[in-house]
Amino acid sequence: MHLLVQSVMGSEGEFCAFRLFGEREGEESRRIRLGVSRVRRGRRVVVGASPPTEDAVVVTDPLTKEDLVGYLASGCKSKEKWRIGTEHEKFGFEFGTLRPMKYEQIRDLLNGLAERFDWDRIMEGDYVIGLKQGKQSISLEPGGQFELSGAPLETLHQTCAEVNSHLYQVKAVAEEMGIGFLGIGFQPKWGLKDIPIMPKGRYEIMRNYMPKVGTLGLDMMFRTCTVQVNLDFSSELDMIRKFRAGLALQPIATAIFANSPFTEGKPNGYLSMRSHIWTDTDNNRTGMLPFVFDDSFGFEQYVDYALDVPMYFVYRNKKYIDCTGLSFRDFMVGKLPPLPGELPTLNDWENHLTTIFPEVRLKRYLEMRGADGGPWRRLCALPAFWVGLLYDEISLQNVLDMTADWTKEEREMLRRKVPVTGLKTPFRDGLLRHVAEDVLNMSKDGLERRGYKETGFLKEVTEIVRTGVTPAEKLLELYHGKWGGSVDPVFEELLY
Question: Which cysteines share a disulfide bond (predicted)?
């Protein structure tokens, strides 16, 4: 994904910036304060990821904290420019053996997609590690999970069409190779030792670091799949409101889309094993971010948080340099031991932000990160759920009113218990299912008011919320019944 920062976008963006930096300054000094014009005249700042493109940046003076704040603030967009971005991962497997795809098979699949459907290859050294076409990209997660990062789109109809087009293309090439794709949140059959490792430098650094900071980090890297929705904000205040609503309701999304009850061929005691794994991956960079609910929260407070999240790497000369456990604050003053005297660029900041994994993540948009991977119909339902809640002012306010008196302890309790008990999690004087019913109605109402006839995309989850029976519980019922204690049929049940 290559993002271009040229100037603050629209009047809402300017409001965002002025709220941060006070009275109006001269145009050039204002743009410099926003970290948008810290380059020689005539050069644009290209901010890249997967792989980064740091060579395009020409920094003339050291980044300041205001620049880092301004980078986030530059995401502000007026409402008519709000878009929907969907990212979804899936497990590739061999039809005959059910074994995970090896890199060589993935390479052939990527090359096949590039040749047949006109994608551009993304290389790391001699390895093809992804594809790009317009604003869409295909990338590989550490264990070969296949991810589509969709383009920013205006309506859910476009989002669902993009998903369908992607799956059509992937199946057209993969089926000829004897490869299928599974929509589930956690690898149901194979152990860590069975998962192939992708040839990406950043993942090697993460793989070595993860066991030092949690017991489940390697499971997160190699055996999980998620669906994620990326949404815009108009101002710092709008970001704060959406961030709070998203965090408070993330456990409800986790429950509705819970779809990972198996580990190595047996029930694992969870409805969302994927969600549980994040509770012991690396607590410095995950979780429910209680400070988002503080009165003082804003872009600057998120920057302070991100500066204190230990680094993974810096990307220089097409190589990843191991900086695990080191501080971006030290990097800001040229005191990063692997790169003595070197100062960060905005690219380094953007790459660092991608190594933080809370339940809702802030970049120049907000990412809703709480849902398990699932079959294609639910890939359209998740963005519908969040768009109805966060892109409609009345629904957003209703969510904030409903969750205003939820305590930090209640939010943490839901985060901890929902992966086990789903919509049947006790909450106050009832079950989480009862809250989910209200929330789903708010989402439907919000979609109605948008006027794009998008409420049909919620049909896939309406029955889940009505009955309180999650997708994972249906899989467990099949496992104990019709499947006779075998997980192998799940590869057919949830085949794309």
Answer: 160-380
